Amino acid sequence: MAKPTFRFTHYDLKEQRAGAIIEVTLSAVNNVRLMTPGNFQRFKEALDFKYVGGVAKKSPIRLAIPESGHWHLIVDMEGHHGLADSAVKMIAAPATARAPKAS
Description:
Order of helices and strands: EEEHEEEE
Low-confidence stretches: none
Strand order of the largest sheet: 1-6-3-4
Shape: globular
Largest sheet: 4 strands, antiparallel
Distance between the termini: 45 Å
């Protein structure tokens, strides 16, 4: 199994609600990628994968969770000089009040 040839930091964000905001603080320019478990597996195997995010040229960077589910956040140095120190925190969770679903 191939692995990425660059260093990365992995954060398992567990289950998140759509609309939750994740704030990532970096010590240097790096890539910040938010992805589903399936795409994280593809990332680890150096296959094509999909993600939300990209090159973070400023810090902190904020990303919104696009849909409810299990999410992984990767900070990686691909194309940059080194792996940045990073920290991740939730800064806003969506309102939990929702209309009940019709059954």
